Amino acid sequence: MIGLIARWQAFTGTNERGASLVEYALLMAFIAVIAVAAITFVGEQSLSNIEPLTEQSVWRP
Hints:
The protein contains two helices and no strands. It is an all-alpha fold. It is rod-shaped. It has one domain. The chain is about 75% helix and about 0% strand.
């Protein structure tokens, strides 16, 4: 069975060694989506903590 697979790979010329550029691009896109979601979540949480402080410290004549 292994000999058959080896002959098929030799016949088709496919040698799957390592990741291709498309796989790296998909990985980077996934990481970017996760980073944007995390930054958005953390930004909203910190803004909700800061807004009450800024409303109290505004100087009004």
